[in-house]
């Protein structure tokens, strides 16, 4: 088993780009309903993430809910800069231990380019299905 088995590829992942406006970020959050989104730089490298709480704190600090104000503010000001990611060639142990602290784990290639994410949910679903299979086997014995 390897990380690629759990990977949601970049093409299927909602993400933000460095330089996007707060308004653009809010629109993506509303459209997809996620609680956090990865942020990529112009080269396609993972640079961090933004959570819905970050947007709420930003709105409170601006003191306005006018979308024109949010068009001027950039997500660069509220991003959680994080260089953490797992390589596509990393071990399953690394992936699972990383999932303990995160809702999603960014996956990069050998050039540090963002390939996609692995969600904690996908890992838990896999282990749950195998747990159920083991229980069924035990019942049949």
Q: In sequence order, what are the helices and strands, one letter per element?
A: EEHEEHHEEHEEH
Give a quick account of the main beta sheet: strands, pairing sense, barrel closure.
Answer: 4 strands, mixed
CATH C-level category = Alpha Beta
Q: How many β-strand stretches?
A: 8
CATH topology: CBS-domain
Find the CATH superfamily. Answer: CBS-domain
| End-to-end separation | 27 Å
**Dominant shape:** elongated
Radius of gyration from the alpha-carbon trace, in angstroms:
18 Å
Helix coverage percent of residues?
Answer: 40-55%
Overall pLDDT, averaged? 86
Number of helices: 5
Strand order of the largest sheet: 1-8-7-6
Spans of at least 5 consecutive residues whose pLDDT stays below 50 are none
Task: Give a brief description.
The protein is built from five helices and eight strands, in the order ββαββααββαββα. The protein is an alpha/beta fold. It has one domain (3-140): CBS-domain, CATH 3.10.580.
């Amino acid at each position: 088993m390897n990380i690629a088995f759990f990977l949601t590829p970049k093409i299927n992942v909602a993400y933000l780009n460095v330089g996007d406006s707060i308004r653009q970020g809010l629109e993506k959050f509303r459209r997809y309903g996620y609680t956090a989104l990865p942020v990529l730089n112009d080269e396609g490298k993972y640079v961090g993430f933004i959570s819905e709480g970050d947007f709420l704190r930003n709105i409170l600090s601006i003191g306005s809910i006018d979308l024109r104000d949010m068009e001027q503010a950039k997500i660069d000001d509220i991003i959680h800069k994080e260089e953490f990611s797992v390589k596509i060639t990393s071990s399953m142990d690394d992936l699972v231990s990383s999932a303990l602290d995160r809702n999603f784990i960014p996956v990069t290639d050998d050039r540090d380019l963002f390939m996609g994410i692995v969600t904690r949910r996908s890992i838990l679903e896999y282990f749950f299905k195998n747990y159920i299979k083991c229980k069924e086997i035990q019942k049949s014995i």
